[in-house]
Design a protein that fits this description.
Length: 66
């Protein structure tokens, strides 16, 4: 049978610091602007740099115990 074969996925795991929610919008505390929009800033997880995943260690890739 010929057909589409799925591409292998790169091994990664969900970031333990942000649990996959890598970017957050935080209110600045300055209230609203002249259009009524709430002023926010965007902050990325410092551990995964906003990706939500971290690469597996070499021991985990070879089947060893971490």
């Amino acid at each position: 049978m010929t057909g589409h074969t799925p591409a292998p996925h790169a091994q990664a795991r969900i970031c333990p610091n942000c649990h996959g929610f890598a970017t957050a919008a935080i209110t600045s505390g300055l209230g609203r602007d002249h259009r009524g929009h709430l002023r926010t800033i965007t902050v990325d997880c410092p551990a995964c740099h906003g990706h939500g995943t971290t690469p597996l260690s070499a021991a985990q890739l070879t089947g060893g115990r971490a």
